[in-house]
């Protein structure tokens, strides 16, 4: 079992009993998501924005236009952090202060660089698309050279990370368990609904197998 070494940067202080440093478990949290919250500094202001990402090994890929201020700020800083969080349940306790949520959350830290060559950009964008939906890359048209030129691709190398996971029930005060108040969990999950074909399809194309497979896995 490989773990990230604990440091001042990635060590979980509050709720340290829920901390996870195992690389595989953190990768599982990353792979279960597609949107991460990226933090950066712009004109001395702290900003955090959601960004779609792809992961391959210890690499995270982000992309946008060549003028994207977030990616340019990250490249200027040479480092970044990103958090991915999944909400799994509402925890309804007998006391307001003991209400909580069950969740899986991972924060990664690392260095960043710009991907410049067309071949490397295509590889990164392939990772991005396949992270979104397996098989999608082979179902779309090739990216044009001019599109690659207009696209800024940033590669993050994960150097350290940590996660927090809560997956237990209600934790009330001992004297509250006899109160006539309902307590428990409301499980939550994100699901896929049936695919909707674009109204502007030029012919009656069937929904591709990779889309149907994704739907069946997530419905």
Secondary structure topology:
Blueprint: E1 19-20, H1 23-31, E2 35-42, E3 45-52, E4 54-56, E5 59-65, H2 69-77, E6 79-92, E7 100-115, H3 118-132, H4 145-150, E8 151-166, E9 184-187, H5 209-218
Antiparallel strand pairs: 1-8, 2-3, 2-6, 4-5, 5-8, 6-7, 6-9, 7-8
The SSE string, one letter per element, is EHEEEEHEEHHEEH
Radius of gyration: 21 Å
What would you call the shape?
Answer: globular
SS element count, helices:
5
Find the CATH superfamily.
Electron Transport, Fmn-binding Protein, Chain A
Distance between the termini: 32 Å
Briefly say what this structure is.
The chain is 22% helix and 36% strand. The protein has 219 residues and is an alpha+beta fold.
Structural overview:
- The structure is a single chain.
- The chain has helices at 23-31, 69-77, 118-132, 145-150, 209-218, and strands at 19-20, 35-42, 45-52, 54-56, 59-65, 79-92, 100-115, 151-166, 184-187.
- The protein has 219 residues and is an alpha+beta fold.
- It has one domain: Roll (Pnp Oxidase, Chain A), CATH 2.30.110.
- Strands 1, 2, 3, 4, 5, 6, 7, 8 and 9 form a 9-stranded antiparallel sheet that branches.
- A hairpin with a 2-residue loop joins strand 4 (54-56) and strand 5 (59-65).
